[in-house]
Design brief:
The protein is of the alpha+beta class. The chain is built from 20 helices and 12 strands. The strands form 4 sheets. It has a 5-stranded antiparallel beta sheet. A 3-stranded antiparallel beta sheet has the order 6-8-9. The protein has a two-stranded antiparallel ribbon with strand order 7-10. A hairpin with a 2-residue loop joins strand 4 and strand 5.
Length: 551
């Protein structure tokens, strides 16, 4: 039960924020609450767009040194422009209220996603590592360490699955950290979340980008296992563990994780920073080199796969109906042919519209081989997902519970139907009447029988009939001939290669490795062609973000 005092306090807090910021933001509802403040969904009155408004605790805002440092660092984060970083629009310091407005991301945090759905599939762990890695590389390249990478600070966009990093509010300039580290150690200030804090950060030493990689490794372990791996009864004991105890390998927590991914995560959580990846770019490059990020399926091809799947289902349904209708009616008159002719015409027009969609794909640059490769990837994704579910203990428990439920429902359904038949009253030769309770029982039993049959047959571990039909029809000669016919006589303007999900840019500038020791010049980590490709994708993402913000 909600404490009335807490509700009253929250209402009073919102009222105070509305009074202080009412001319700029219209507070709609609370999104979340934590140690670093409360986040509200609000609308920017001047620009008429939704924002996430984070209001810092009053005790934090009342300390002049902390407030000034926060304002300075948040203004630094506001200069960031990257598709994997939640943008900071404005900082507000009005009448004792300290807040900043961020872009509102339609989705949920990694912590919320794991709490709702359990551990992430391997493919999504890889995507998250790459997206966050690019974001950190961008920030580190500008001399900023996040210092609080954790599941609560990684947003997963619902529409695209893209991971975005938020809350650079406690980040610290690397250069500034060198000068203040000794002072912070003296006063015992430890900024961050202990369960995801690097050893050097926990001890108050100077931190650099490798500290964020340690936190990212622990975040990946959380995504893979569904739990925080470094825990203890008190904060002090957690920090001691971070300093002294080796983090267990991800393969011990999640055996189905590929070896290359396990090696990358285990390297991130090394206690010695020198044993970790030297940069976030190096982490992303290692994932790319191991080909962990499976090629993404372009949205048009994915949609076309659904279109042809529906076509095959409709075709099978029409064929079965026509066969049954012919068997029953024996085509005794012209009228009996009319439904079949109508259904065949529907199937014919649906096939023509699907061919037109194939033609549009060809006009967009997708050849028959690209489309067939997309079909292969769609089916491979589904097979991989079933394999991940089979290895997931949570899904296994849910399936066993479902089978037990169906095991109770099925005998109950049979019993209802049997009782209903026994309640029939003979009316004459071969005629029976059923009282109302019997009618209710037979209908309820039939419905219960159908539901139990679905629970027994529909398994997350088993290939569904529709997918079997898709594999047999569209991934064979018939499907290839259909696609080739639909894409014939189209001059391709350029191949639309199936691309990798990690191909979000590190930034709009050329990716450069950190300067080598002893004054050596930095070395590029990406070819010119690849950088240009990344820049084009960043431009497309930023244009999409601007359109979404304008809606």
């Amino acid at each position: 039960m909600t404490d009335p005092n807490d509700t009253f306090a929250a209402t009073s807090e919102q009222d105070a924020i509305r009074r202080a910021l009412g001319d700029r933001y219209a507070i709609e509802r609370e999104l979340g609450r934590g140690g670093m403040g409360t986040v509200y969904l609000a609308r920017d009155v001047r620009l008429d767009r939704p924002v996430a408004l984070k209001v810092l605790p009053a005790e934090f805002a009342s300390q002049v040194a902390l407030r000034d440092r926060f304002l300075q660092e948040t203004r630094t984060a506001a200069k960031f422009s990257h598709p994997n970083i939640v943008p900071v629009y404005a900082v507000e310091d009005v009448n004792g209220v300290l807040a900043y407005a961020m872009g509102y991301v339609e989705g949920e945090t990694l912590a919320e996603r794991v709490a709702r759905m359990g551990p992430l599939p391997v493919r999504e762990i890889v995507r998250m590592l790459q997206d966050v890695g690019y974001a950190l590389a961008y920030a580190h390249g500008r001399g900023v360490v996040h210092r609080d990478v954790k599941p609560e600070n990684v947003m997963l966009e619902r529409a695209t699955g893209r991971a975005l990093v938020l809350d650079f509010g406690i980040s610290r300039s690397m250069t500034h950290a060198v000068h203040v580290a000794a002072a912070l150690t003296r006063v015992g200030e430890v900024v961050g979340t202990p369960e995801y804090m690097s050893p050097e950060q926990a001890s108050g030493d100077v931190v650099d980008g490798r500290s964020d990689l340690y936190s990212l490794g622990l975040t990946a372990l959380f995504a893979a296992s569904g739990r925080t791996v470094v825990t203890a009864e008190t904060t002090q004991k957690v920090l001691v563990k971070q300093l002294t105890e080796r983090v267990e390998s991800v393969r011990l927590l999640r055996p189905d994780v590929p070896e290359a991914l396990a090696v990358a995560i285990d390297r991130c959580v090394e206690k010695d920073p020198a044993l970790r990846f030297p940069t976030a770019e190096a982490l992303v490059e290692a994932i790319d080199a191991a080909q962990l990020a499976k090629p993404e399926i372009p949205v048009p091809v994915r949609l076309f796969a659904g279109e042809v799947g529906q076509l095959s289902t409709i075709a099978i349904g029409i064929v079965l109906y026509s066969w049954f209708f012919i068997r029953v009616s024996h085509l005794s008159s012209l009228d009996t042919l009319l439904p079949i002719v109508g259904l065949i015409s529907v199937l014919f027009m649906r096939a023509l519209t699907t061919l037109s969609e194939a033609h549009r794909l060809a006009m967009a640059g997708f050849g028959a081989d690209d489309i067939m490769a997309g079909f292969q990837r769609v089916m491979a994704e589904r097979a991989e997902r079933r394999a991940e579910l089979r290895a997931d203990p949570h899904t296994q428990r849910r399936r066993r519970q479902t089978l037990r439920t169906a095991g109770v429902m099925l005998p109950a359904a049979v019993a209802m139907i049997v009782i209903a038949f026994r309640m029939r009253i003979p009316l004459g030769a071969g005629q029976y009447g059923t009282p109302l309770p019997g009618i209710v029982l037979v209908f309820a039993g039939t419905a219960l029988f159908g539901m139990s049959a679905v629970l027994l047959l529909k398994s997350p571990f088993r290939t569904p009939p529709g997918e079997r039909l898709f594999r047999a029809l569209w991934m064979g000669r018939i499907g290839r001939a259909f696609v080739r016919f639909g894409t014939r006589n189209v001059k391709r303007t350029g191949a639309k290669a199936i691309h990798r999900p990690g191909a979000l840019a590190i930034g709009v500038q050329r990716a450069v490795a950190p300067a080598a020791r002893d004054g050596q010049a930095p070395k590029p980590v990406a070819s010119t062609d690849r950088v240009l490709d990344l820049e084009r994708r960043v431009s497309a993402l930023e244009e999409s973000a601007r359109r979404n913000a304008a809606q």
